[in-house]
């Protein structure tokens, strides 16, 4: 019999990234069993009481949210199977190239997205996060939302400390003078009234450029675009810098409804976990980053988050 030592990834990342396991191994069969045990140990846990214990001690919490949390409010994501607007997915239209070649079509797409939000409301996940922020603020603790979503549902739920990585659906930017401002006009311009129907049989509106949304800064009249980050564009350096700052300070990170495949946001939580900070994932399915985290609560965030972030009845 020999002693077999190996660095084992600890399932509780706040204890440390790895722990040293020294085990007696006398045969290949036992070695295979050991490998199976180690693989099991590397899996995140779904222990709500253990999470609640960690949560009760956290003073600086970062909540990373993605399209999944908005999808639970019925917001179309235009991703994956069936995720089409007419015959296009988001990555086909949310690009600078698409806007240059066909601004009318891109504005139809975003007009539809703006208008559909009138019928959408924050779900229990949004509300749980907002209520948690308010409650912990009174205790001198901090909750920051870093979201990839552009729909303002976190704000509608009552969250205040929000970083919008990908911009905002209700903010425009002038392609001529660069003016950025809020715009909740409905429709955003007369020519888009009644346009944007997602049915694939609908014909393009082909609106002339001079009838599309235009800048109201002085006499500019430049063509407006949605102030969002499109595929192929970089994130706002100031927003990204603050996101990194909050992540560097957090002592607990929640990953809610994100696929962990859109960069650079996909690296945020794994980098936090690598520092030994506890990370909990709330998602309907596992992601490429799941095994980097200490906790994974599978299912709708609207079901799991309210319980995870509920007030401590003992206090």
UniProtKB/TrEMBL annotation:
EC class: transferase
Cofactor: Zn(2+)
Pfam families in the record: SIR2
Entries under InterPro entries matching the protein: DHS-like_NAD/FAD-binding_dom, NAD-dep_sirtuin_deacylases, Sirtuin, Sirtuin_cat_small_dom_sf, Sirtuin_class_III, Ssirtuin_cat_dom
Principal location: mitochondrion
GO molecular function terms listed in the Swiss-Prot or TrEMBL record: histone deacetylase activity, NAD-dependent; NAD+ binding; protein-malonyllysine demalonylase activity; protein-succinyllysine desuccinylase activity; zinc ion binding
Protein localization: Mitochondrion
Annotated cofactor note: Binds 1 zinc ion per subunit.
Catalytic site positions: 166 (proton acceptor)
Binding site for NAD(+): 66-85, 148-151, 257-259, 283-285, 301
Function summary: NAD-dependent lysine demalonylase, desuccinylase and deglutarylase that specifically removes malonyl, succinyl and glutaryl groups on target proteins. Has weak NAD-dependent protein deacetylase activity; however this activity may not be physiologically relevant in vivo.
UniProt name for this protein: NAD-dependent protein deacylase
């Amino acid at each position: 019999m020999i002693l077999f030592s190996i660095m084992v990834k600890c399932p509780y990342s706040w204890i440390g990234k790895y722990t040293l396991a020294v085990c007696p191994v006398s045969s290949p069969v036992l070695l295979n069993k050991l490998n199976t045990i180690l693989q099991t140990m590397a899996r995140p846990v779904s222990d709500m009481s253990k999470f609640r214990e960690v949560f009760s001690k956290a003073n600086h919490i970062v909540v990373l949210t993605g399209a999944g949390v908005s999808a639970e409010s019925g917001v179309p994501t235009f991703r994956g199977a069936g995720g089409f607007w007419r015959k296009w997915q988001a990555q086909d239209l949310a690009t600078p190239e698409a806007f240059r070649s066909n601004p009318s079509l891109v504005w139809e797409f975003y007009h539809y997205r703006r208008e559909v939000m009138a019928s959408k409301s924050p779900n229990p996940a949004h509300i749980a996060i907002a209520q948690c922020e308010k409650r912990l603020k009174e205790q001198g603790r901090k909750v920051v939302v870093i979201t990839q979503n552009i729909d303002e549902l976190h704000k509608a739920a009552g969250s205040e400390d929000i970083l919008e990585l990908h911009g905002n659906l209700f903010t425009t930017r002038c392609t001529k003078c660069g003016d950025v401002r809020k715009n909740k006009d409905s429709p955003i311009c007369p020519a888009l009234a009644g346009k944007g129907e997602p049915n694939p049989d609908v014909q393009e509106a082909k609106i002339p450029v001079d009838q599309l949304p235009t800048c109201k800064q002085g006499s500019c009249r430049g063509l407006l675009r949605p102030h969002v980050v499109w595929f192929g564009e970089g994130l706002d350096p100031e927003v990204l810098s603050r996101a990194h700052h909050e992540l560097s300070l957090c002592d607990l990170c929640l990953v809610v409804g994100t696929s962990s495949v859109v960069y650079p946001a996909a690296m945020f939580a794994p980098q936090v976990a690598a520092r030994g900070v506890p990370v909990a994932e709330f998602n309907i399915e596992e992601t490429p980053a799941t095994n980097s985290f200490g906790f994974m609560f599978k299912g709708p965030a609207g079901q799991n988050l309210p319980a995870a972030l509920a007030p401590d009845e003992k206090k």
